[in-house]
Amino acid sequence: MEEKEQVGGIPQIKPTEAEPDVVPAAPKEESILVPKVEIPAAVPTATPKTNFLKSLPKISFAGKGRKIAIGVGIFLLAFIVLIVIPGLSVYGKSKALYKQTQALAASAKGQNLQAMKAEIGKTKTSLTSLRSSFTFIYWTKFIPFIGSYVADAEHGLKAYGYGLDAAEITLTTVEPYADILGITTDLGADGAKTAQERIDFVVKAIPTIIPKIDEILAKANQAKAEIDAVNPNRYPVKFAGREVREPMKKAIDMLNEGVGLVSQSKPLLEAAPYLLGLDSPRQYLLLFQNDKELRPTGGFMTAYAIMKVEEAKFEPVASDDIYNLDAKYRPRIPAPEPISKYIKGPYILSKNLRLRDMNWSPDFTESMQLFTKEAESVGVKGIDGVIAVDTQLLVNLLDAIGPIGVSGFGNFSTQNEPKCNCPQVIYELESFADTEGPIVWDPVSGKIVFAPPNIDNRKKIIGPLMNSILANSLGQPKEKLPKLAEAAFKSLLEKHVLFYLYDEKAQAGVTSFGVAGTIKEYDGDYLAINDANLGGRKSNLYATQEVEQEIVVAKDGSVEKTVTITYKNPEKHDGWLNSVLPNWVRIYVPKGSTLVAAEGLEDKADPYEELDKTVFAGFFQLRPEGVSRVTFKYKLPFKVTKDYKLLIQKQPGTDKPLYHLKLGKTQEEFFLKTDKEFRLRI
């Protein structure tokens, strides 16, 4: 019981003895913001010991729920083991390979052979590591949609490996001659000081190079076989802001062109000893084709020379103007109708073909067979073949060696000449060779009886100019040899140099390399556009060509094509170089093709067959500061299913016309620098 006491008149309650283990709580300051609530005192109890896991809500795994949970668990585990872990490994090693590939590209840009070989070794190691990791996700190529991309990656990795093997063999092969390609090595100097001495060294080594071509080609073909299985058109144009499809196409094109180049180079190397006169001296007829007055094989045959070649050393023997050669010739072969109809001049009285116009066939071999046979009657004998060059070769060589001087004729360079908006060397050559004025032929003999005073300058300049170019090119220090080699190689690939050889094996070699100017046989779609300037001065100096091909494949596989050719001449008429261009255009298409419509022609020929092709042809005029457009619509003689094959051949002497190609959703745009093949998926 509680006891009461009186303190100061106020009764007080005296607490009893506290219960054991109960400590009185300290008084708390009451908050004026919180309402006072009476809370009953808690009854003190001992805190029980609890199991946390047992306190969680229980989930029943009985029946279907248990099976689903187990299935989800197994799936997650499999996903981690089969996809996530291998995927992370592949991603990491892919980044490592990409970084190593950049290092390899940098070494190639630095053009140091030893560095390139070292980086190739490192890249192969990185590639092997990635391929090992990639084996764990190969099985996904059987999964719809993503499987095709995984399969492409597998093909790509294999192709990369074969490509590295080919590159390694190539570097080992070219190591003794690397300086010609502009590649530095750690090898000691070989003692050669001039370009001629270096060429002599390389020529002697050709027999040791040829066997290596087969090794390189074997690896290159393996790489091509893998890449051929990849379809870049199923990839997006861009992904995450980066170009995807176009870089893939360019890489595939580069590989295909490289494989083709290696394959074609072996027969040419095998023919090199004959061409260079290593076994015995050779003598060639050198034809100068003026590509500014375009003709079917590359240009009007304006001059010629006889050149002797012995042990890879070139020596001009004689040179002359084509008109002087023609003056000795008695025409006896009927001229093609477009020549006699539009050139007129000597053809007004006689419709027989002149020597200078005998390159009418777009097939250089066929044209030269006719020309050399007829030229024999006026003393052109004892030659082993014909080499034709145009003015672009001269420009390419002068770009490499710089300006040259020609005694009695001044200096020549590739600097722009404002008077013609063209390279200075072109302006000077045209000035020397083509002073304005009429040429009059005798109606009986066909000989020239009146001509401008400087018409004979072709004969005067051609010999000295050729000597100067040869002397300057071959006398250059060997450090300039890479630029010279590049100029020569570019001129060959772009058809500014053509060969017709009497020796069958040698001719097969130049044909294989694509420098014989032949119209090729092809199993698929084919296109070759051929233009002939029929008396339009030198208007091809300014005329440009743009080609659009629209290909429509019907459900039954039949094909209809529309080829539109746009010609432009942006310069003003000057009455000397630039005037109205009377142009005879021919397009060569697969044999049996059917013409649906032709537009833009002033004179249209009936379709005919030639060189195992069907030909559509006609005449139009392109005026200075004008535009002309010609369209041919036709049907192909065959049907296509999955793959569409197309070969486009470039006309010799032309620069690089712009082409547009459209097939369904596939669109291509490119400059045609050399013959080009396409394999498109429909």
TrEMBL record:
Keyword annotations: Membrane, Transmembrane, Transmembrane helix
InterPro entries reported for this sequence: DUF4012
The keyword Transmembrane helix appears for this protein: yes
TM stretches of this protein: 68-91
Span list, region Disordered: 1-24
Protein name: DUF4012 domain-containing protein
Source organism (scientific name): Candidatus Woesebacteria bacterium RBG_13_46_13
